[in-house]
Amino acid sequence: MNLIVVSPHGRSGTIFIQSLFDAHPQVITFPTHKLNYPDWEVGMSAKECLVDFIKDNSHLFEGGAASIDGNELNLKSKFYKSGKLASPISVNYFVEACRTELGMSWSTSITRKDFVIGIHKAYARLRGYDVSAIKYLLFHLHGYRDRNHERALSDFPDMKFIAMARDPRETWLSSDREWARHNADAGIDYKTVRPLFFVRVMLRYKKAIQGLISFSKKLPADNVVVVDLNKFHELNRTAMTRLATWLDIEFTEALLESSFGGAAWLGNAADRKPISGFDVNKSRYKWPSELSDRDRDLINFLLAPEIMLLRYSYDALVKCPNVPLTFPHRAYLYLRWRELDVASRSLSKSKTGALRYLRAGSSIAVGIMAAMRDYVTLIRQVRNLNDTKANSEVLRISGWRLE
Length: 403
Fold this sequence. Notes:
- The chain has helices at about 15-20, 45-55, 90-100, 110-125, 150-155, 170-185, 190-215, 230-235, 235-245, 285-290, 295-300, 305-310, 315-320, 325-350, 355-385, 385-400; strands at about 1-10, 25-30, 40-45, 65-70, 70-75, 110, 135-140, 160-165, 225-230, 260, 265, 400.
- The protein is an alpha/beta fold and about 400 residues long.
């Protein structure tokens, strides 16, 4: 049994592609995008590891009291607040299925790989799958900072990696709509905080692509595929047929319909329009007509290496070499976001007044120094386009795009 990992680079449809594999009889995935890969190699008994797994992922399960051989669990279900992907899993049924799958390791030490496979097989049994037919577990992993990818790779050296990508200008359009809606719901004037969200999206995108470059070098060339979301919607059936061939699984019509836990999933598009499966209208690039000149020029400047690396349109980079915002202005927005982000975390953790302000002040100072260091690195990367061209060769060799 092997592993598929899907990861986002921008707001790029990882939940969507996960939903397409949900009902395939040879792939099993938990209905969540918040599952971390365990950070231990050889654990306690399977029973104790299972208790920790259920507590750490309580959003997957029904609320209420449950017991695992004397270990009492009182779960307050957050399932419907965590993505509305499917009906919550019954803890008691899941535990019994795990007891069957984990067998001899129930009361003895178990390896991480065996535990990961065992809990997925148990969930597959609850879904009515033929467990013997399953070829892949699918993990949806966000970000590279917590080294989830490296741990998964150490257990599954032949794992398949699907890197979902999206033009950063499309990513910002989608994120901008999403943040505007969230802030409106919270009664916040989005215009005042929009620059901070902009910088946050840019930084996350840059760090995601850096992680992609680094991690893709650790995998066999044939085990990586980069999938652009717009192209994915355009290719539709062709895309899933090619992915099925790449994974050596049977192509079925289930690969064209979105579901979680076997129930239809209607998407999480920024425009909140329901969609179940592919939509050719989402293959059209919107940023050329909808993105403001100011946002476009700033993204082209800050993310020029990433745009070139992923082979997105070069035209805008040629036509708009001058950005309207100055270096100090961009630096101010970046520093300001770091200050507010770090200070707000300190304020929320401190209980006494004096200590609270002392912590906030020191955190802001540390945040500014870190921001200055990161910003200098950012500018160097933007200016060093020759190295970027070399990196594009690395990605070309270690992965392929659906074209």
